[in-house]
Amino acid sequence: MTMPARMLRLLSLLQSRREWSGAELAERLGVTDRTVRRDVDRLRELGYPVDASPGTGGGYRLASGRDLPPLLLDDDEAVAVAVGLLTAPGGGVRGIEETSARALAKLEQVLPARLRHRVAAVSEVTLPITLAKGTRTDPAVLAVVAAACRDHELLTFDYESREGAPSSRRVEPHHLVTVHGLWYLVAYDPERADWRTFRVDRVTAPTPTHRRFSPRRLPAEDAATYLDRTLAAAPYRYDAVATVAAPASVVLERMIGPSRSRVEPLGARRCRVRLGGDTLEIVAQRLLSLLALDVDLTLDGPAEVLDHLHATGRRLAELAATGSTKRDSATKASTQAGTGPGDGA
Amino acid sequence: MTMPARMLRLLSLLQSRREWSGAELAERLGVTDRTVRRDVDRLRELGYPVDASPGTGGGYRLASGRDLPPLLLDDDEAVAVAVGLLTAPGGGVRGIEETSARALAKLEQVLPARLRHRVAAVSEVTLPITLAKGTRTDPAVLAVVAAACRDHELLTFDYESREGAPSSRRVEPHHLVTVHGLWYLVAYDPERADWRTFRVDRVTAPTPTHRRFSPRRLPAEDAATYLDRTLAAAPYRYDAVATVAAPASVVLERMIGPSRSRVEPLGARRCRVRLGGDTLEIVAQRLLSLLALDVDLTLDGPAEVLDHLHATGRRLAELAATGSTKRDSATKASTQAGTGPGDGA
DNA sequence: ACCCTTCCGGACAGGACCTGTCCGGAAGGC
DNA sequence: GCCTTCCGGACAGGTCCTGTCCGGAAGGGT
Question: Which residues of B touch A121 (CB under 8 A)?
C-alpha cells in the first residue's frame, strides 16, 4: 500500500471507531508501529489533531481541530447523508438550502452508481407523505442544477409547467430554495428577459452547457424572500383569506407551512392570513391551526371553498356529537391528490 | 507542501468545482503540470477515477468510481450535512436513522468547535415548527449516544421523564430511531432488567464509560417496530379512536404522521385508527385528514376530546357559513404547547 | 484542412523522504 | 512497582518523488 493510500486508510479507521491502539493500527495498515506513529504525526501536521493516551486501555482518537478532515463514509452513511441533504429543511436560515444543494452536488458527483438507486429508493419512502407522489425531486437532477448554480453555468433543461405544458429552457441558474421538501430553482431566463422560478421535480434532462455567465442582481433581498413573494402571488387551485385577532408573530409561530408572505400584519394585534392550497384539505388544515389559536376569526373566500369548509365542519361536529358520519359528496373534491404549492413559471 | 497534503488539496479542488485545467491545478498546488498529471494518476490508482478531456475547454473532473472518495467539505457544507442528518426523516426504511446517527457521530467527532454552535443555531430554526420548543435534539448529545451504540459501550446519562422526574441512568444503548424529528434511544437498562426507550432531547450529560457490553437480542423484529409498539402503548394526553370505511393501506398513505401501529386493519375494507396526541389540535388535525378521505367514519373517545372536536367542528361550520367566529373558551386547552408523542420510559 | 489548446506518458538525474530497527523515556492503570 | 501504552531520536538502505525535457494524440474553432 502506498503512503498516501495508507494515510487515508488511517483516517478512515480513526473515523470509524472511537479509539484504536497503536498495535491494532499497525496490524491493519501492514506497517510497523513506528510508522503508525509517524503517520499520526503527519496527520497532526496536516492540521487534524489526534489525541493519544498512554497506559492500559489507551490509544489514538481523532479530535476536532481547526478545520474538518476529509470525511470517509461507508456506503450506508453516504446514502444517509445524501438523503439528509435532499430532504433539507428550508425555513428561515438564509442560504442554508443553497449550501445543502452544493454539498449534495459534491456528493452526487462522486457517488458510486450502485448507491444512486438506493438514495432514490430511500428518499422515495422518506419524503414527507403530505407531498403527493410524483413530486419527488430526483437527486441527480438536483445535483446538476446545484452544480450549475455554483459554477455560474448556463443550464438547459426540459420543463413541464403546472398546467402540464412542456417547454425547453435555457436559463441562468441563480439560487435553489426549498419549501416543505419541494425544491425551487430561481433563475433568469434571457429569452423571456425576466426572472422565473422552476420546481426542480418538474425539470428533466438538465444539461450544463459549459458557458459561463456573470450573475445579475436578483430583484429581492435574497432568494428565499423572492420565492416567497412569487409563491404568494401564484394562483392556487383553492384560496381563502382569514383575518385573525392575534399578532402576526403568534400566527407565524403556530401555523403549519410558515410562509412569511402568507401572513400580513394588520396593526399590532391582528393580521390577515392567506390559506391558499392546491387541495381543499390543505386549506382546511391551515384553517384548523388558526382555529386552535382560539381567537376571533373572520373568513373570506369563494363559495366553493366556503361550502367545503362548511360541510367539513358539520361532519366534524356531527361525528363528535353522534359518533359517526357518512361520506359527503360535497367534499369529494378534497380527495384528489395534492400537488403542493404552485409556481410562477 | 508535502505530497499527501497536496493530494488532499487536489481532491478538494476537484470536488469544489466541476472542471479544472491542468495548468490551473499546477498553479494552485505549486507544482509542475507534470506532477499534477502524476497526482491525478495516483488518485486513479487509489480508485477515484478522474475524467480528462483534451482540447480547448478541456480539463480534469472527478467521476464516480467503485467507492466514495474522501469528502472535503467547507464550513457551510459541513453545517448543512450535520443539520441534514440531525433532521433525518425516519419513516419506513429499516435502519436508515441508525446510519444517519452514525454518520453524524463521525462528523460531530471532528467538527471544529466554531461550527458546533452554528449547527445548533440552524437546527433550532429549521426543525419542524410543529414541534414545541425545547424538544430540539442537541447534536452533540445525539452524537455521543450514537457513538456509544456503534461501539457497544455502556452509557450513563441524566434523564428527565415525561412527567419531569429526573433520574440517572446507566444503560446498554442499542438503537436510535427517529419519529417526526424526535430521536429515541432504545436501550437495555440492567438495573431495571428491562428494555426502555428514551427521548434523546431529554437526555443530558451523556458520558460513555469505556466498558464494552455484548448486545442482547431486542424483543422485536427491529428497533423501529419496537419503538412503534412502545409509542402506540404509551398514554397520550388526549386520545380517540376512529373506525374508517377504507382499507388500512389507503389511510396509511394519506394520514399525517404515519405510525404503522396506529392503524389496525379490520378486514380488507375497513380499519381502526388511533388519533392520540398531546394536544387537542393534533387530534383534530389527524381526524381532519381522515375526513378528507370522504368515507364513512365512526369515532370513539373521552367526552373531553369529543366536546372539543364538536366545538371545533361547529366553529368551522359557523365560520364558513357566516364569515366569522368568536373565540370559544371550550377549546382553550388546545392552545397549550404540544410536546410531541410520548415515550415509554 | 489547419492550428491551437489541452491532456498524455516515457526517460532521466538528483535528491528528498520514507521505512524498519533499535533504543531509552514518560505517563497512565492495576 | 509492574505492565502497558505512547513517544521520538538516530541511522542505514533504498524507494520514489520532482522537475525537465520531449514527441504524440485528441478535441474545437476557424
Answer: 93
